[in-house]
Batch of 4 targets.
Target 1
Amino acid sequence: GVLAVVGFGDPPSPTDPAIHNPLQRVDGGDLVEVWRGDAPIECGQDGDIRYACNDDYLFGVLTVDERVHGDFRTAVEAAYRQLLAFQQRSQLPHLLRLWNYFADITDGEGDRQRYRQFCVGRVQALAAFPARSLPAATAIGRLDRSDTLMLYWLSARQPGIGIENPRQLSASRYPRQYGPVAPRFSRATLTAAGQLLISGTASIVGHASHHHGQVSAQLSETLTNIRALLAEAHRQDPRVPAELGGSSLLKVYLRHRADLPMVSDWLAARLPADCRCLFLHGEICRDDLLIEIEGVHGHGSAP
Ligand code: 3EB
């Protein structure tokens, strides 16, 4: 059973995958992302939400036209309220992983910056959410000048466990300098099946960005962060492999397309050959960050 197929880049033709991630692939490949689950799969629509689910998992998509709301923050809050209301009614209520894509992510001065406004809208909807069950997340700028905020997510019948990174301050404790409210997400979710869903991870140690303008140093710091997260998850659940490998799928976001040769060569030289990467062109939410890496790790077994 196929729960979701995510295609990248140009808007789909009617025969293309059901979920359209608006970022362009920069590696020229035409791979799609496929989320498999046990059949039977049921598809449906609820308000603006489209979903597919089986007995254990649900994959949902919600797009919101920013122009129909007064401002971006309100659009984000409305989207998250709709998402949470839907999840609370669902038999698969536990959010494991969320992806957020919207344009001009670093535009706007100070607290008006769009990523900061995104964080405010999200907090207004997620206020009552216990920190330990915050989903893993990605928030990346789309570059196609669209006015649409796109959210998609994975949820489950059984809750996951939020995993924090010992090298990084929990995002929900970031100090005031990063915005009026702290971002709300976990560094990773450990699913009941023992799979690790890794949030967008960048060259951040504690709360500070490191290696401004240096791609390979940022890559190195990011991989060190991911390895620390895997070690922490493995410590909590030995089903999670302690090292990246054949069960790992990474998505690498690049601010600059021109960095692709360096980034892909650097990773190829340091990652196990059986760990696969897909490269996308998108804006990272801090101006000083050039790359961000997310992923899925471990096979998972029936919960
Ligand atoms: C960071 O670690 C980098 O706001 O949902 C990564 C993953 C980041 C998710 C989000 C932000 C988010 O703070 C940015």
Target 2
Amino acid sequence: MKAVLIPGDGIGKEIAVSVKEVSDALDTGIEWKEFSAGAEYYDKSGKLLEDGLLDTVKEYGIALKGPTATPVGKGFRSINVQLRQTFHTYANLRPVHTIAGVKTRYDNVDLVIVRENTEDLYKGIEYMLDEDTANGIKLITRKASERIARFAFEYARKNGRKKVTAVHKANIMKYTDGLFLEAFRTVAKDYPDIENDSVIIDALCMKLVTDPSQFDVLVAPNLYGDIISDLCAGLVGGLGFAPSANIGDDTVIYEAVHGSAPDIAGKDQANPTAILMAFEMMLRDHGMEDKADRLKKALEDVIAEGVHTTKDIGGHAGTKEFTAAVVERLK
Ligand code: NAI
């Protein structure tokens, strides 16, 4: 199998090494084609994406991506948003579950967030009305809303999940979130075997931190989905444990939920678990269930043992030591 690897910025380069080492240890036979992208590459070359990246992602249909930095409030548009729009990866699948050995408030978190990935305020339709007034457009379509709702119900059905909950603020945003909710309710009728309900985003945040076990699959428009993913990552030990897949009809881009972590970049302190869990998702989706299971177990064992864990969860190991321990378990 051929796959594109985009290490990206900051800790991306360190955790991409972990992926390659683990891939070799598992003997996946994956031929990685590596491309540069991101703010650091831009500073060097004046380009955000290396030539050939887009064509190769299109050709292979599979990419594993490290984080890419985006300037705040100025500069170029997010590469992630561009990639998601270019490859129409309309669903962002973000499973979140408790991992033995990671100390957290709850020991029973098992949630899946399905985030609409192409529209909403992330469409980037923003402009200045005058010097002191900025306007941003929240774009929601019936087509994309129904498509993401259907994705969530199909996922629930295939993965033995019991309930899908729509996340919205339709009491205030009656047209945009109202349409999202209406589309969800229309699609839900086709899935009588799966329970469905809805929750207002602010109430959801409170409920998630007080009792996350009330939820199963959450489907949300882009912005709410982004925010609750980080909240849910916090429930299971932080961003080091949150993988994702950007899924389109022809292309899937797997990545960790976290960013380039400039505060720890280049210091051998990054926890590579999230990107390795994203790699696990990739293996599972491409007929390598057994290897995915082995990787899952190796990660869980190293974390539960607690000897070679990274600083973010109270350990003392660096990225390299943690990766070496995982590789050792895979032998
Ligand atoms: P961040 O996720 O990079 O970092 C937030 C905090 O979590 C930091 O303290 C960081 O050290 C820690 N952290 C993140 N990942 C970690 C890991 N694997 N191991 C240990 N600690 C980890 O978020 P921040 O600082 O808001 O963003 C930094 C840059 O990353 C920005 O330019 C942002 O645009 C970009 N970003 C890129 C994403 C992507 O490419 N998918 C996603 C989120 C942010």
Target 3
Amino acid sequence: MAARKILIDTDPGIDDAMAIFYALASPELDVVGLTTIFGNSDTETCTVNALRLLEIAGRTDIPVARGALRPLAMDFRGPADFVHGVDGQGDTFLPAPTTQRRANTDAARFIVETVMASPGEITLVPIGPLTNVALAMLLEPRLCDALAEIVLMGGAAFVDGNASPAAEANILNDPEAADIVFGATCSVVMCGLDVTERTLMSTERLNSIGEFDNDRARLLHKILPFYMDFYHRNNGLDGIYIHDSATISYLLAPQHFRTISHPVRVDCGHSFSRGKTLAARSASDHHVPWIGRPATTICTAIDADAVIALELNRLEM
Ligand code: RIB
Ligand code: CA
């Protein structure tokens, strides 16, 4: 079977790096491009990180398109340097990549051009704030018809947020964009905190990555300690939550996930619950402002042991 073509929209980011390497090591997937966005760091830093990750993986054939510098309707809330380091890569301050395979267009246009050139073939995998994806939808109204699917990391349907008690970080960084994407007419799969905070990779297993004999694993072994330290101090965890890789696991092994389908709205107000993803759970909830919204496939449960084993297996390859 032909590999599934995916376009990853990302804000690397330590867990983004894991997800990108996981995808690149999976023969079932064909990564046709990376588009970048602010989030864990500013957009330019995330772009440099994306280029470096591809260089380390020996995949400088994959183009990188730099994305929006700010959310649709507000200023950027600022980098998550306390989680991912000032450089977005665990304060490792790695050398700049020498190959600069930047697309000669911005991320939204790159998404439109790539998807429209291969109708029905491209799956979008956003693992950062959804600004670029929303901009691409606004730019090309036929985009959703031409997309195979969107499988995204973001939101918290039936659990608390992580960037605020109400909101998950990717959604809080651009609620207006997220509400556009959850209203899209194509198939949207939401891998949110409902499953990612159930997927704890232990310190022991993370340390095993340091023994894998490839450059991708060696890079992860360098950048992971900062992220592990954050989770230890902040959440008292002996390990880390695996957020962004949930999208890749879903694409490779959807049988390890349980899902339900409900329309999702994002709170775009300017109060405490800004950025909260609200799923209409029952038919009686299907009233304004959910009415007429397409259903999102929401991941609600995960076989964490199975997806962690799969990811480690691929990172070792
Ligand atoms: O909430 C988790 C998300 O926020 C992940 O995408 C992580 O990389 C951060 O951006
Ligand atoms: Ca991310």
Target 4
Amino acid sequence: MSQPYVIDKLISAKAIDARLEELAREIRQRFADTDKLVVVGLLRGSFIFIADLVRELDMNVEVDFLETSSYGNAMESSREVRILKDLRGEIGGRDVLVVEDIVDTGHTLAHVLKFLEARAPRRLETIALLDKPSRREVDIKATWTGFEIPDEFVVGYGIDYAQRNRNLPYIGKVRFT
Ligand code: IMP
Ligand code: MG
């Protein structure tokens, strides 16, 4: 069992909603000439974000998933990233948008991009709901970011702490009591 903690609200469901509308507008513009965009969610943390995002996109999309894992404990992201589940579909020559929950050290996104680039997509862009720039170890930034946040451990809207709190409708930060 983990130590007791409370969750302080950081980003409301309403603020997430409003930001998603803005991001969707930019994404639609960027991919205006694409007949079918492949939207790739990184499991598990992006499952709510991708569900809301594709409903805002109002364009022809194919949804696929990639699962990564990192060794390490619940709060420490490790530097070693493995692909646990590959895409079902082909992305060669296609336009791809990778959807990530948080860019923290940057190792996960860097590894995933390298893995997907090897399949020669026509275009490969990324969106992260959250970004913790102060934690970066790899020089990488998503094409679009929902919110920059300070170095806090967050949960909700798909994001977990030891597999808990993914179903919170907002983003909160974990505070140990
Ligand atoms: P990175 O490889 O260090 O950029 O870590 C990315 C992954 O670590 C994210 O996709 C999350 O799954 C996890 N992660 C990073 N920060 C947090 C957090 O504050 N709460 C929960 N998971 C996090
Ligand atoms: Mg993740």
